[in-house]
Amino acid sequence: MEDVIAHPLPTSSFTRVTLPRTRPRNRAGIGAEPSTISESPPLSRFLFRLNSALLLRELLFVWWIQFPCVCVLKMGIKGLTKLLADNAPKAMKEQKFESYFGRKISIDASMSIYQFLIVVGRSGTEMLTNEAGEVTSHLQGMFNRTIRLLEAGIKPVYVFDGQPPDLKKQELAKRYSKRAGATEDLEEIKEIGSKEDIEKFSKRTVKVTKQHNEDCKRLLRLMGVPVIEAPSEAEAECAALCKSGKVYAVASEDMDSLTFGAPRFLRHLMDPSSRKVPVMEFEIAKILEELNLNMDQFIDVCILSGCDYCESIRGIGGQTALKLIRQHGSIENILENINKEKYQIPDDWPYKEARKLFKEPLVFVENEEPELKWNAPDEEGLISFLVNENGFNSDRVTKAIEKIKAAKNKSSQGRLESFFKPAVNTSAPIKRKEMPEAVKESAKKTKAAGGKKRR
């Protein structure tokens, strides 16, 4: 029996190597015995090492095909979710999707559009298109997802990116370069890979364009949903809306909004209902309390962990960043005391500029923020845009419009009823599930002190 690599690879780039399974493995070489190598002539040793290197390269290439998610570019603060789960678990709580009935939620539009382009209607490299060949995956995803939010009584506000800050342009250039590389890789995979492999690689070439954004803005306005075009970063504007009390929380998969100081942040709110993943709610006040940091220190932890505005220090991840900030209090003090041989500081490291962007982002001042108003859907406009221009099914669009209208009435009725609820009796006994944490801890200690149970 022989180990055979399952995926065919081009002979010009790789040499196929087959090795007997019975041959022992050791430090001297993959699948070869020490004596074989030591006694071989120089040319044989060279060929063996060459084949071993080619085998390793081939294995890595196949692994890359099977697990391309490892190569997908990450955005936002690196590893922040895990850092908070490990060090501030009480600041995170699972909520049901339905629990946000009547809540106004600001949503990072670009992140949602990107997800729709990757997932909706994709088969291999093919995506949903209209008769003119224009992609409509983002419209289908935005239409269906927004209706789901409205039916749950949620009042979404979509915020779109404006001009990126100068510090982010370097990061955007890196993303452009990676997409260009992924496009070249895709051409090779089309010749040698399966349909699944081609689809995985094609997702790495996706880019949200200006046209995608304009299409979604037009759709949302026709649906009666408010749209905000941020002066700069959408996450920063989402956070500003939350700080001013215009919305209850920010919804995104990018954790930057917490670094911008959003009081509440929601992950998985935009997940499809089929996944049945609970919404994860974060509270910045509880995060700071559990981490025992102030907001400036939390921002410094995020910069050290890795953000979109500057390089991080190689070797310093989230846990190390948290430890160093707790020990030294700020990045400046860390740089004065850090072992510079072990941790090399990037040249001209713009951490101060990054910090200022998080603390003083370019957002609308409170009295200049666009009005948030949810209107009735424009039925004729939706049918013209979706059916006539983009080939959507007429019956489905008509039924969807009825859902939007019903959802609007349901949400309005729910808010009116809240004004007539009886006042809460403050003297009523606290229910067990509402028992404060301090009382729970006290009860646990009392129970522990009671010794063995009586039989």
TrEMBL record:
<keyword id="KW-0597">Phosphoprotein</keyword>
<feature type="region of interest" description="Disordered">
    <location>
        <begin position="427"/>
        <end position="455"/>
    </location>
</feature>
<keyword id="KW-0479">Metal-binding</keyword>
<dbReference type="InterPro" id="IPR006085">
    <property type="entry name" value="XPG_DNA_repair_N"/>
</dbReference>
<feature type="domain" description="XPG N-terminal">
    <location>
        <begin position="75"/>
        <end position="182"/>
    </location>
</feature>
<keyword id="KW-0460">Magnesium</keyword>
<dbReference type="GO" id="GO:0005654">
    <property type="term" value="C:nucleoplasm"/>
</dbReference>
<dbReference type="GO" id="GO:0005730">
    <property type="term" value="C:nucleolus"/>
</dbReference>
<keyword id="KW-0269">Exonuclease</keyword>
<keyword id="KW-0235">DNA replication</keyword>
<keyword id="KW-0234">DNA repair</keyword>
<keyword id="KW-0539">Nucleus</keyword>
<dbReference type="GO" id="GO:0003677">
    <property type="term" value="F:DNA binding"/>
</dbReference>
<dbReference type="GO" id="GO:0006284">
    <property type="term" value="P:base-excision repair"/>
</dbReference>
<dbReference type="InterPro" id="IPR008918">
    <property type="entry name" value="HhH2"/>
</dbReference>
<keyword id="KW-0255">Endonuclease</keyword>
<dbReference type="InterPro" id="IPR006086">
    <property type="entry name" value="XPG-I_dom"/>
</dbReference>
<dbReference type="GO" id="GO:0000287">
    <property type="term" value="F:magnesium ion binding"/>
</dbReference>
<feature type="domain" description="XPG-I">
    <location>
        <begin position="221"/>
        <end position="293"/>
    </location>
</feature>
<feature type="compositionally biased region" description="Basic and acidic residues">
    <location>
        <begin position="431"/>
        <end position="444"/>
    </location>
</feature>
<protein>
    <recommendedName>
        <fullName>Flap endonuclease 1</fullName>
        <ecNumber>3.1.-.-</ecNumber>
    </recommendedName>
</protein>
<dbReference type="GO" id="GO:0043137">
    <property type="term" value="P:DNA replication, removal of RNA primer"/>
</dbReference>
<keyword id="KW-0378">Hydrolase</keyword>
<feature type="compositionally biased region" description="Basic residues">
    <location>
        <begin position="445"/>
        <end position="455"/>
    </location>
</feature>
<dbReference type="InterPro" id="IPR023426">
    <property type="entry name" value="Flap_endonuc"/>
</dbReference>
<comment type="function">
    <text>Structure-specific nuclease with 5'-flap endonuclease and 5'-3' exonuclease activities involved in DNA replication and repair. During DNA replication, cleaves the 5'-overhanging flap structure that is generated by displacement synthesis when DNA polymerase encounters the 5'-end of a downstream Okazaki fragment. It enters the flap from the 5'-end and then tracks to cleave the flap base, leaving a nick for ligation. Also involved in the long patch base excision repair (LP-BER) pathway, by cleaving within the apurinic/apyrimidinic (AP) site-terminated flap.</text>
</comment>
<comment type="similarity">
    <text>Belongs to the XPG/RAD2 endonuclease family. FEN1 subfamily.</text>
</comment>
<keyword id="KW-0540">Nuclease</keyword>
<dbReference type="InterPro" id="IPR019974">
    <property type="entry name" value="XPG_CS"/>
</dbReference>
<keyword id="KW-0496">Mitochondrion</keyword>
<dbReference type="InterPro" id="IPR006084">
    <property type="entry name" value="XPG/Rad2"/>
</dbReference>
<dbReference type="GO" id="GO:0008409">
    <property type="term" value="F:5'-3' exonuclease activity"/>
</dbReference>
<dbReference type="Pfam" id="PF00867">
    <property type="entry name" value="XPG_I"/>
</dbReference>
<keyword id="KW-0227">DNA damage</keyword>
<dbReference type="InterPro" id="IPR029060">
    <property type="entry name" value="PIN-like_dom_sf"/>
</dbReference>
<dbReference type="InterPro" id="IPR036279">
    <property type="entry name" value="5-3_exonuclease_C_sf"/>
</dbReference>
<dbReference type="GO" id="GO:0005739">
    <property type="term" value="C:mitochondrion"/>
</dbReference>
<dbReference type="GO" id="GO:0017108">
    <property type="term" value="F:5'-flap endonuclease activity"/>
</dbReference>
<dbReference type="Pfam" id="PF00752">
    <property type="entry name" value="XPG_N"/>
</dbReference>
